[in-house]
Amino acid sequence: MIALLTSLVALAVDCAVVENASQIWLPEGPAPAPGATLVIDGPTIAAVGVVAYQADGATAKWNGRTCKRVDAAGGVITAGLIESRSQLGVTEIDLESTTQDFDGGGDPIRAALRVGDAYDPRSAVIGIQRVAGVTGAVIHPSGGFIAGRAAYVSLYGSLQADTVVNPVVAMEVGDQSGPSGAADLLALRELLDDAKAWRANQAAWERNQTRPYAASRLDLAALTDVVDGRIPLVVSADRAADIEALLRFRSETGVRLVVLGAAEGWRMAAQLAAARVPVILDPLVMGPGSVDQLAGRPDNAALLASAGVPVTLSTFSTHNARNLRQMAGNAVRSGMDRNAALAAITVRPAEAFGITDRGRLAVGYRADLVVWSGDPLELSTVARHVWIGGVEIPMTNRQTELREKYRTLPGTPVPSLGNP
Fold first, then answer.
1. How much is the pTM?
2. CATH 2.30.40.10 describes domain 5-78+384-400
């Protein structure tokens, strides 16, 4: 699949003054400030709120600089959206395996695999999500018992060097279809114990003077990042009992944990909040999609967020990551606070995966932001402007170019039949 070249053509400017916003969504929530302004200076946010500048046609004088003026036209400015569960750039066509680069294959323990090494920043799928306000994503590997290491990617750029912001943000537990959940946790404990033992006895291991370990040298080395708490372990669990067991596992091992799914998370809200364990969930899971989701309910996200759990919302999709704000809107419909819902698709996923410079509209943060035509959680709203790293992105992609290409078809006009 070849991405269209125009999808990578963007306007880079030294600075830009984005003016006349009806609202700027700050880290603490929306700031109703008609005429509010945000200044982009290179790749970062330089000022936000009430900003002194002098308008001069298409430019603005700010801080002794001449900047581009961008009219928000009464729209709402938010941080760029972050999809926390996707395979953008590592899959092109769902049903065509030759376009998929997320499964390491072979040994069930693939801890050393870095899915970011397969990331294609020119994927045609990326531009479609980008014009919908998605500016970053956590991409994850699949397959095996330990699938490998997830990466955080920026959705603008043509090289991995420019787009793979952090190649290692989490360790992914993959297939948990062992004889029981207890057996899966036992296997995880053994792996972590082996990683500790290998690190303490590397010289003896090299001389073949240690007991056999459950994983290879590179996999054990990769797992030490989990043992030392540098990256979280991402584990799927929907049933309340499984979440409880995971929290006990976390307490016993000291690992950082991210719970994926959490359909019955509301039953463990107090315990998740006390442990400050982030959850990633789909707010449209409500009811028995599986036996493990029997107690799923539409206000799951609302109950978890109200209890103080760090909630991240996800589409759990690659091609439809663009529906991320629709997920947040549905969570609000079911009782989630609006600020919490927007945080769940911006700053919360950044925090869960240790991305410290994105997800907020604050001075010094990366200028990943969107100007919306209205309420970003309403379906009728569209993204008017998108910046990624201070670069204004063209609102084009493969779909828009195909639309224009086939809007008028060449050929001989159909002759008029005349009057009967």
1. 0.92
2. yes
